[in-house]
Specification:
Blueprint lengths: L16 E7 L7 H14 L4 E7 L11 H4 L3 E2 L5 E2 L2 H9 L8 E3 H14 L9 H15 L8 E6 L9 H13 L5 E8 L2 E2 L4 E2 L2 H12 L6 E6 L5 H11 L6 E5 L7 H7 L2 H8 L11 H11 L3 E9 L9 H14 L1 E9 L8 H5 L4 E4 L8 H13 L4 E4 L1 H13 L6 E3 L8 E6 L14 E9 L4 H6 L3 E8 L1 E3 L4 H6 L3 E5 L6 E5 L6 E4 L14 H15 L1
Bound molecules: glutamine.
Amino acid sequence: MVGIAFSKLDAFNFMAKYVFVTGGVTSSLGKGIIAASLAKLLQARGITATIQKFDPYINVDPGTLNPYEHGECYVTEDGAETDLDLGHYERFLNTPTSQANNVTTGRIYQTVINKERAGEFLGKTVQVVPHITDEIKHRMMLLGQDGKFDVVITEIGGTVGDIESTPFIETVRQIQWELPTEDVMVVHLTLIPYLNAAKELKTKPTQHSVRMLSETGVHPDVIVCRTEHPLNDEIKRKIALFCNVKAGNVIESLDASTIYEVPLLMLKEQLDLIVMKKLQIQNYKEPELTKWNGFLAKLKNPKSTVNIGLIGKYIELQDAYKSILESFIHAGAMNEVKVNVVNVHSENLTAENVKEQLGALDGLLVAPGFGNRGIEGKIVAVQYARENNMPFFGICLGMQMAVIEFARNVLGLQGAHSVEMDPNSPHPVINMMEEQKRITMMGGTMRLGAYPCVIQKDTLAYKIYGATEISERHRHRYEFNNEYLKAFQDKGMVNSGINPATNLVEIVELPNHPFFIGVQYHPELKSTVEQPAPLFVHFIEAAKKYANK
Ligand code: GLN
C-alpha cells in the first residue's frame, strides 16, 4: 500500500499504519500504559496492533543495567533482554513480543558501525542524518512489513527535548512527512499540573512541550493530558488552540486506581475512535472487553486479603520486580483476594529476627537476583517457610536459595553454596552452566528466553500446570548441580521439571510441605490479564488456605 522512496528501504512493502507516542514535561507519565491501552482497545475492536519501544540510552539492551537504574529487565520468548514496558504490552495484549519490539540507541549505532566496518558505506561520511536515522526508520517500520499487524504503535522513550532522543524524533518527523497522512499519526502525552494554592490546572508546561516538539517538525495529532483533576471544555479548547490540534483531540488521562483501568478510561475519552478516524480505519466492531471487565470486577471486589512477603534486595524500587507484582495482581483477581505485598529486605533478615519479620505473613516469594548482597537473609527466609509449612515460591535465584538451604540444613552439607557467591564452596550445589564457562562477554550471554520443560506426573508442578510439557522463559548463568541430585532425592526434594535436552533441573518441590516450589525460570514474564501464570494462581490459593487456618 505504501511505497516510500528512502534509501535501502524500497524493498519493503509497509502494510501497517503507524502511531507514535511521545512524552513531554516530565518522565514517568505512563506512555507505556497509554500505548498498551490504545493497542488493547484496537485489539478489542478486531484490529491487530503491536507496540514497540525505542529507548534513547547507549546500552545495546537493558540487560547490563541494574534494576536501580532501569527497573526490571523483561525477557521475551526469543530471549531478548528488554525494557519493562514490553511486559505491559504483553500483559495487556496477551500476545508475545520479540527483540524487534525494543530498540535502543546502542543497538542502532552498533548496527551502523558494524556496517561501516564491513565497508557498506565505502567512500561516504557516516552521519546521524541519514545513516543513523535510516537505521532507526528501518527498525520503526519493520514490524509493519509482513501484514501481521494493522497498526504498529511506537513508544519513544524519554521526554521531548532530551538530547538523547533527538535522532528518534527526527526520524518520526521524516516518517510523518513521507507517509500518506492517513497512515501515520503522533500522540503526545503531557502533564497538566494542579496548583493547590491557586486551585488551578496549568496548561503552560504542555504548551511548551508541544512547542518544543513542533520545533523539531513533528506535529501531534492528539494530546493526552495526565491530570489529577478532570479537564473542563475550556481548558481543552485552550490547549487545542495553543497547540494546533483539533479540540476533540485533547483528551484527559485521569489518575486511575489500577493501570488495568486505563483502557476503559481511554475508551471513555474515545482515544480509539480518534485514532481510527485519523488513520481512516473503517472496518471495526464494538469493543469486546468481556474478559477484561470480568478481571477488573474481581480485582476491585476482593473477598479477603493475603499477605505475601517479597524477599529481595531491590525492594526500595517498585519497578525492580514489576512482572512479579503484576502477576500477583492477576493471580489475586483469579482467587478473589487482594494480595498485599510486604517488601522484606533480605539484607535485614537474620535467624534472630526472622519470626518477627515473617511470622504474620501467609506466603513467601524469594525473588530473582544476582550477586552476594542479601543472600544469607534469603536462605533464612526459605528455612522459615520450609520449617513452618508456610507457602513458599522461589524464582530463579529464589529457587537456587531453596536448594542451598536444603543442602545445608537437611543434607547437612556445611558451606553448600552457589559458585556465583562462593567459587570455592566445598559443596557447589549450584554450579555455573557448562556453556557459560566459555563466555567472556557479559551482554546478552545468559541462558535467555523460552525453553521447554518436561514435568513429572504426580507432582505439585503437574497439578499446577495440568501438563507434562510446558515452556517458560529464562535468564540465568547458574544451575542445579546434578552431581547432588541423588542426595537431594533421597532426602525428599523432588525435581519435578527438567529440560529434556540437557537434564537441567527446572523445578524443585517438597511433597511433604503444603506448598513449596522453586523454579529456575521466570513464570512472571508470561502472566497476563487473560492468562495469569498458573504458579502464581496456585501460590496465592495456597496462601489463602494458610491464612484461613
Ligand atoms: N544469579 C542467578 C543466575 O545467574 C539467578 C539469576 C536470576 O535470578 N535471574 O543463575
